[in-house]
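Tip: read the tokens left to right.
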């Protein structure tokens, strides 16, 4: 009897465990794959029409799409570069230069990640906007007729806002990676006469490289798809792919063109996500403190 139970039990376990896969697949198909298929179907000609790439050729060849793609890539690359530089500098200061309130600052960084992105754009408007505190103070102090600081409503205003929002996404894995560095190595190098820049170059940077690249890849993915900051700031002549999708679908009611741009944006996002997963897998996410 005992031997029979041992033989029979394993034959039912795979069947029972396989049933648990069905509910998440059904939910994922209903909430993601089905709408995505509808978008792809509309982009290829819409309901009742033969599948065709004519809309793709028309949209991809338009000047407005090329400009939106250009702004999307430039803003994402510049914002990611700024996040990497500021994130690395701030993380080094917090991890290796203890000062009063450093732990509180690290906790505030965790809290900052949870805030919606439009709050940063709103705060920048109050500070750097045409009627913001900085311009009002300078106009009153220097008796100027117009606002002297006018970078916010441009591409640089969007980049600065995204750097402010997404720098903590670089700092988080960096701080985790820095916690694994043996401080004795830094003390020995310092006692042997190594200067701060050499210690950073020889000890800190090699240990931080996996987390730095993984965090930068994540920032690149997030900035490519950023919509709230670009919409809220309303930068002049700065249209990104997400904003172009919104304008085409909501304001012009051209759903076919919007779906074509959405398919391109999804393909770009999936490519960047694949790059992010490859980087994390290659360098080892556990060693970098990412999971």
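Filled-in amino acids:
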């Amino acid at each position: 009897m005992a031997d029979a139970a041992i033989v029979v039990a394993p034959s039912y376990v795979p069947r029972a465990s396989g049933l648990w896969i069905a509910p998440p697949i059904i939910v994922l198909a209903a909430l993601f794959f089905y709408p995505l298929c509808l978008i792809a179907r509309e982009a290829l000609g819409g309901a009742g029409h033969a599948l065709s790439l004519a809309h793709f050729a028309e949209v991809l060849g338009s000047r407005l799409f090329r400009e939106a793609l250009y702004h999307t890539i430039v803003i994402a690359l510049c914002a990611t570069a700024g996040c990497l530089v500021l994130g690395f500098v701030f993380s080094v200061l917090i991890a290796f230069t203890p000062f009063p309130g450093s732990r509180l600052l690290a906790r505030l960084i965790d809290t900052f990640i949870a805030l919606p992105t439009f709050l940063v754009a709103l705060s920048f408007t109050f500070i750097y906007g045409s009627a913001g505190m900085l311009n009002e103070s300078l106009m009153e102090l220097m008796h100027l007729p117009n606002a002297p600081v006018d970078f916010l409503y441009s591409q640089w205003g969007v980049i600065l806002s995204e750097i402010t929002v997404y720098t903590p996404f670089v700092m988080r894995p960096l701080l985790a990676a820095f916690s694994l560095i043996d401080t004795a190595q830094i003390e020995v190098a310092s006692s042997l006469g190594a200067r701060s820049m050499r210690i950073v170059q020889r000890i800190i940077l090699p240990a931080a490289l996996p987390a730095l690249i993984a965090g930068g890849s994540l920032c690149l993915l997030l900035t490519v798809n950023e919509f709230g900051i670009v919409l809220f700031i309303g930068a002049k002549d700065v249209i990104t792919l997400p904003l172009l999708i919104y304008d085409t679908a909501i304001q012009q009611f051209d759903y076919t063109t919007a779906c074509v741009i959405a398919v391109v944006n999804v393909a770009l996002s999936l490519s960047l996500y694949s790059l992010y997963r490859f980087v994390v897998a290659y360098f080892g996410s556990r060693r970098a403190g990412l999971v």
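The two ends are 45 Å apart (CA to CA). Residues 63-96 form the longest helix (34 residues).
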